[in-house]
Amino acid sequence: MSDIIYTKVDEAPELASASLLPIIQKFAAAAGVSVGTKDISLAGRILATFPDHLSAAQRQSDDLAELGELVKTADANVIKLPNISASVPQLVAAVKELQAQGYPLPDYPETPQTDAEKAVRAKYDGIKGSAVNPVLREGNSDRRAAKAVKSFAQSNPHRMGDWAADSQTRVAAMSSGDFFSNEASATLAQEATAKIVLETADGETVLKEGITYPAGTVVDATFMSAKALDAFLAEEIEKTKAEGTLFSLHMKATMMKVSDPIIFGHAVKAFLAPVFEKHGAAMAALGVNPNSGLGNLLALVKGDAAIMADIEACMAARPPLYMVDSDKGITNLHVPSDVIIDASMPALIRAGGKGWGPDGAESDANCVIPDNSYAPVYDETIKFFKENGKLNPATAGTVQNVGLMAQKAEEYGSHPTTFEIPADGTVKMILDDGTVLHSHAVEAGDIWRSASTRKAPIEDWVELAIARQKAEGCSAIFWLDAARAHDAELIAYVKPILEARGVADKFQIMAPREATRASLEIITKGENSIAITGNVLRDYLTDLFPILELATSAKMLSIVKLMNGGGLFETGAGGSAPKHVQQLVEQNHLRWDSLGEFCALGESLTFLADAKNNDKARVLGQAVDAATQGILDHGRSPSRKVGEPDNRDSHYWFARYWAEALATQNSDADLAAHFGPIAKDLAENEAKIIAELAAVQGAAVDLGGYFHTDPAKTAAVMRPSPTLNAIIG
Ligand code: NAP
Ligand code: MG
Fold first, then answer.
1. 414 pLDDT band (50/70/90 cuts)?
2. Exposure check for the chain: N or C terminus, fewer CB within 10 A?
3. CA 262 to chain centre
4. Nearest C-alpha neighbor of 426 from the set 713, 567, 578, 221
């Protein structure tokens, strides 16, 4: 096993790796540090799942499973880049691409009938959605902006949209019948095995059995009423029309891979309600599944003039939709994974509450977030900016995050314990001793889900919070709502630990709405706060605050202190930026910023130095930190526009600053001697390398694929400077 594992992923970060990783491997090798790769890309995971369909040469090892074992050991040192959490349309597209490349994979069965189809579907379901992070996250999350990154943002503040006091932008959430209001939660005194059953007039169906929980696990159950959801959506569509704003829906169809595509499908149906009423049967016969989005629906019905005419008439009578790409006519409802709440809401808030409409102009929007568990965070943020005006990034303090996520804690809606209920009845969660832990009266179509959180991760999370608060000395808030069932169980863990450690006075416990306001007040004063949150808010807040404070969440330090002693270093808090790939393919310009990778690499090398007493790794890591600082100080981050320096230029500068820092340090003479000539070569050839990199921009490029690119073609595109390549070796 290599000293450090650098993950192979998808889309923009993987393109960036084609340029950056050879530099990292070469520099690390000089210090005797090996950097290997493991493939957790969507295409790689698909290939690893179907060995029986592939030839020996086509087969691929199950790298995710290997990494899943590695992170349970003290030896783990993994740099994890963002990967695709595939929605169904993305998964189907990836399978098609691989088939076209000659991999005889089975089709994704939309409606599996035979046992064989059901087996294939079950395998694909394992790849869908957030399938990677829950496997690797054997520890809790510590995310913050490195000091250098925060001070850079303060001295180079990004532009923020102005907030008008009379902005019509608002958040709409359900007031009853949602996951939030139906939640029940209990902490198990003993270990238990549970089953989930649905009792109906016709008898009992087992939805799931043999679920085992260690003692101390917090087990929740809740459901969203389909009727209440439909009524809410219909009402909000009408209200949006009356208010004259854009209708926008913000979901997490990737992470909440079971529940949220269903909710998204309800929204598609609600928006086109008259069309579904009239043509529902005909559309079903054409294979329409609203959960796959309006884009898929239009592709399937475009041959039917009558349906198309009714869709057009319906859309004309509806409020305008918030757009993903108004030039191409791609709406919010086209693809379930195009609008992802943790990226979409902060971007809208940063823009002063504006979204893009079908006319290509900016408008106020009604932000529909059906479940009320976390909608108040965005609602309160919007209210705060309407009252106080936009945040000033030049003076704002920072909100860091300590997030509970170890061992699949609080994986709402992505668990195999989420169900779309087939018939009216009662869902019960029953323990092996006969105890009915939770019971809900449900109706057909309701979405019922259970999630669990183990004791050891909760305790580890509180300890991490105590350590981080001690290190920072700033305000620290547990974002927990005493009135919410699940949060009340967590508070019962948190309070005694804080008291036993004598630090209860250093922490506050507040419901998300109050915590949002308090945190915004704190950073407006230029002070800092630590948000100690559950898994979902970890995800949401580590985009929201960085996007407001730093313009992007890509530059975040994201450290996962693994519970068994290893280290997992995620690179930033953002995703794989599909829009960046489009720009590269069309214009050969990659605006991806690798700062998250630079930060993670520095941390990973320092961790290696500490864990293995490796002094050379320490020198290497300190030099990475100096290089990262150099990138910030000299403004070497990529530009957004073709013809200007891009990701590849920033890697040249990173290599150069890294080599210079190694050449000039005096802790390790061998490394200084080795990197002296490299630093000199990189400096002397600056003009030539920059010219070679600039020369390629402007024209379209071919990567030989999207999900499964051709390595040689990608390397040719991403390493276009022969001079730089020769120096790197
Ligand atoms: P996203 O990839 O973070 O993209 C949203 C926007 O953030 C981008 O369009 C880009 O803005 C900006 N951005 C993100 N990273 C950047 C970087 N390193 N440099 C410069 N700009 C950056 O979020 P998304 O569109 O919601 O999700 C896309 C995919 O990523 C999905 O498949 C999702 O499942 C996956 N995802 C993975 C993880 C993970 O593995 N940890 C986390 C989140 C999302 P501009 O376009 O304005 O430049
Ligand atoms: Mg996120």
1. low
2. C
3. 19
4. 221
> Which residue's CA is minimally distant from atom 37 of ligand 1?
575
Lowest mean pLDDT: which of 140-144, 187-191, 436-440, 569-573? 569-573
Q: Which amino acid is at 26?
A: K
Quote the CA–CA distance of 711 and 401 in Å, as a whole number: 37
What tokens does 8 get?
């192979």
Environment class of residue 303 by beta-carbon count within 10 Å: exposed (0-12), middle (13-18) or buried (19+)? exposed
pLDDT reported for residue 165: 85
Pocket test for ligand 1, best of 340, 538, 706 (most atoms within 8 A of CB): 340
DSSP 8-state assignment for residue 321: B
**What residue spans define the domains of the chain?**
225-378
DSSP letter string over 653-698?
HHHHHHHHHHHH-SS-HHHHHHHHHHHHHHHHTHHHHHHHHHHTTT
Residue 60 alpha carbon to ligand 1 centre in Å: 27
Residues near ligand 2 ion, CB 5 Å cutoff: 342, 539, 543
Q: Which of 309, 288, 291, 310 is nearest to 299 (CA)?
A: 288
CA 20-13-575 angle, to 5 degrees, is: 150
Between the alpha carbon of residue 218 and those of residues 186, 429, 455, the distances in Å are 6, 13, 7
Q: Which residues pair with 104 in a beta bridge?
A: none
Q: What 3-state class would DSSP assign to 332?
A: coil
Pocket test for ligand 1, best of 8, 11, 85, 356 (most atoms within 8 A of CB): 85
Model pLDDT, residue 724: 98
pLDDT digits over 675-724, tens only?
A: 999 999 999 999 999 999 999 999 999 999 999 999 999 999 999 999 99
510: its two tokens: 């507040």
Q: Whose CA is nearest to atom 44 of ligand 1?
A: 575
Neighbours of 74 (CB within 10 A): 11
Q: Are 307 and 301 in contact (CB under 8 A)?
A: yes
Report the alpha-carbon angle 237-240-244, nearest 5: 145
Across all residues in the chain, what is the average pLDDT?
96
Q: To which residue do tokens 């979204």 refer?
A: 355
| CA nearest neighbour of 644 among 579, 684, 701, 693 | 693
Distance CA 500, CA 498 (A): 6
- Which DSSP letter does residue 163 get? P
User: DSSP H helical segments within 302-374, as ranges?
Assistant: 305-317, 341-350
β pairing state of 475-479 and 203-213: unpaired
Cα 539 to ligand 2 centroid, rounded to whole Å: 4
Query: Does pTM top 0.90 for this prediction?
Result: yes
pLDDT in tens, 292-311: 999 999 999 999 999 999 99
Question: DSSP assignment, residue 118?
Answer: H
How many CB atoms lie under 10 A from the CB of residue 378?
Answer: 24
What's the whole-number mean pLDDT along residues 23-29? Answer: 98
Among the bound ligands, name the one nearest to the CA of residue 344: 1
Please answer whether residues 178 and 368 qualify as being in contact, where contact means their C-beta atoms are separated by less than 8 angstroms. Answer: no
Pocket residues: Cβ below 6 A from ligand 1: 82-85, 133, 254, 337, 340, 343, 552, 554, 572, 574-579, 591-593, 596
The 8-class DSSP code of residue 77 comes to E
Asked whether the beta carbons of 200 and 425 are under 8 A apart, the reply is yes
Does pLDDT of 572 surpass 90? Answer: no
Two tokens, residue 538: 């970890």
Kindly write down the DSSP assignment for every residue of 5-64, as one continuous string.
Answer: EEEE--HHHHHHHHHHHHHHHHHHHHTT--EEEEE-SHHHHHHHH-GGGS-TTT----HH
Q: Please give the structure tokens belonging to residue 381.
A: 């943020």
